[in-house]
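REQUEST ID: PR-0412
SUBMITTED BY: lab tech R.K.
PRIORITY: routine
TASK: structure prediction, single protein chain
INPUT:
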Amino acid sequence: MVRFFTITVLSYTLFLSAQAQVSKNEVYVDKRGRMRWQKDQSEVYLFGVNYTVPFAYGYRSIKALNKGIEKEIDEDVYHLTRMGVDAFRVHVWDTEISDTVGNLLENEHLKLFDYLIYRLKQRNIKIIITPIAFWGNGYPQRDEKTAGFSSKYNKGQATVNENAIKAQENYLKQILQHINPYTKLNYRDEPDIIAAELNNEPSHSGPKEKVTDYINRLAAAARSTGWSKPLFYNISQSPFYADAVAKSAVNGFSFQWYPTGLVAGHEQKGNILPNVDRYPIPFDTIPEFHNKAKMVYEFDAADVLQSCMYPAVARSFKLAGFQWVTQFAYDPLATAYGNTEYQTHYLNLAYTPAKAISFLIANRVFHLLQRNKEYGSYPADSVFDAYHVSYNEGLSEMNSAKEFYYSGTTISIPIDEKKLERIAGVGSSAFIGYKGYGAYFIDKLENGIWRLEVMPDAITVRDPFEKASPSKEVVHITWSDQPMHIGLTDIGSDFEIKGINQDNNYQTKASSGSFAIKPGTYLLVKKDKTTEKWTGEKKVGNIGLNEFIAPQPFSKTPYVSYTPVTEVSPGKSFTVNAKIINISPDAKVTLTVTRGFGPPAAIVMKKTTPYDYSAVIPAAEVTTGFLTYRIIIKDADKYISFPGGHEGDPYSWDNISNETWQTFVAAPNGKLSLFNATTDRSRTNAYFPVFTRNGGAQFTSGEETGQLTFRASSPAIKQGQVMGLQLFVGDKIKYRLPEVSAYSKVVIRARTIAGQTGKLKITLLNSDASAYSAPVELTDQFKNTEIPLSAFKPDSSLLLPRPYPGFLPLWFKASSFGGLDISKLDKLEITAGNDLNADQYNKPFGIEVGSVTLEP
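STATUS: complete
OUTPUT:
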């Protein structure tokens, strides 16, 4: 009796203690699986980034530049705040802060992570930690020798080896109870750490019940510390084990989304908005999946520079029911000039300003858009609520009563200027005229006083998704004075501009709303208004009034950024537009052009902005054959010529540099190449469902020396499988527009392999993602097949690069079809294998394609 009473009291005491702990948590998961704020029971919505500077290459790269990492964190966290970020997640490199049995190491990496948490907390950015990463610290370099259990047990062993599991249990207990020296709180009690994802992208094997047991052991280890916040576990990494994960004792599940694949090695071009049209979740048939919270630990439209993607992603996540979303990964300011950390991702306020503003808009989408509301399918869902995304305009936009944001020049008019409080953008809009290349932010402080923040110009000079190097600059930063016009009625047309960030003493007065501005932070003050209250360290939300962070230029060497046009129409003038950095304002820039015959022509290039130069090659010079040309810069008494960056007088008899760009000039109404296997292979997105030793997609030898063909083959094609390719062709069409109306057919040179007959499907996609297809019958001999444009009918198309995870849709069909328009042609697609005769399946099958052309 006494023993029972003692146990009952003890149990009740533990219950009260647990309840008290729960009440301290900022977030809980309700019975319906929704994360809610304790303070008012409203639903949680947080949108942010991963950021890795305390660990691995992020840490090493900053050290290599001899920069203080705490200062780097301060600067990056400010920029994240400026972008609206309110969520942070990272997979902690356990291998750097643990030993082989899971003891926590109190070292510099852990201290820097503590410092980062401290700084995020000051900006009201919420945190989910993923304590276990399962891998080494090398990428993109080789792994270093580290002490952690992940250096002893690989990703596959970590979830099945008993000693590895014990090390993880020990480590979880210690890290959740670790006291942050900056906040004086342990991670368990830190209110701004709202949840934990137990580990990062686990690799499971063996019986399903063992997977459930493994997850429950980790969850029990965490909860044994008194942790009562939500615990998440990845369910999308290994869909085969989804039911085993769902049966575990966690509060929610984590997902990822890479809708354009990863590591293309080049910029992905064309309309990719269909890839982010929606995120269907396939686990609804699992009973235990329901009533659990859902988060996205990583996402990104990798290898994409377009600024129209992020709001569409956020819309799709909101429709799918996610409450936490964090992009992977934000680039540190110190190394963003070269995009070296994760070359397939690129996001930084200073270096990718249009994407940063798009990200700001996406944050607002995720917070404000109604959950589960349908807006149709693309392109119908390009406009949703207060938001607009446009591939053709290269634009994301938010236009609400209080906020007006745009990632590129827009003609939209704010819906209510009198209520407007915040403007952010790149380029110009109805109220703001700006020709600079950086982002700017305009925030209302009170009637007649606004805060203006202007970032320096960011000029993309190389493809940032190519192979990276710390010695290679992909985006160049320049601090230039730029003309600006602000037409806000609230401050009038003759307002004052006062610099307020450190060392910024610039002051001027607008004339009819126009003035010159350089990077910095300013007060815009209506005539006769006083600014006494707007001084010093005053805060505006989570932003300091006088804060300003921006990088200095990485390179001082002259450089010309120009991508030559492959082919142009004959007898039409041809404009060469180039970006040129690091030359003096009065430098002379000349385009020298050589035709197939006659003497070279020298054309002075006109400066249209501080970095943009253009020259028009007259129509009379654009004759059939080809043009070779180069740009020669004479700066003071020095010459430098491009391509190649060769110094020295190019006209000197002993100058041996002869690099040039080349552009072909087509014959009148000549063929237009849409696909050439030899020249387009590096730009082609190939697709094959299962690569084997005897099957896959590749480029192989063609019919003649120096030629290639695209080959896709399977040793035993299965019903429903598809193979093929997709290629952006909008750039090829752009410079042959005068001849588009003359084209009446597509000609494809292709064959089957393995001695079979068969067919493929050729698809043309307009820039609105509407697809039009036609079948092509093939034999095992190469031949040219003509398909009239009138034969192309509305159809679906592949989503390439293939979205990840693999359960996401492979096919897309536009919500509207306005008819095939060759002048708006965006992509070419070739597919085979999914429409064969029944007797052809489970046998060898393949195709080879050499070329596709448009012809009169």
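NOTES: Confidence is low (pLDDT under 50) at residues 1-23.
REVIEWED BY: pending
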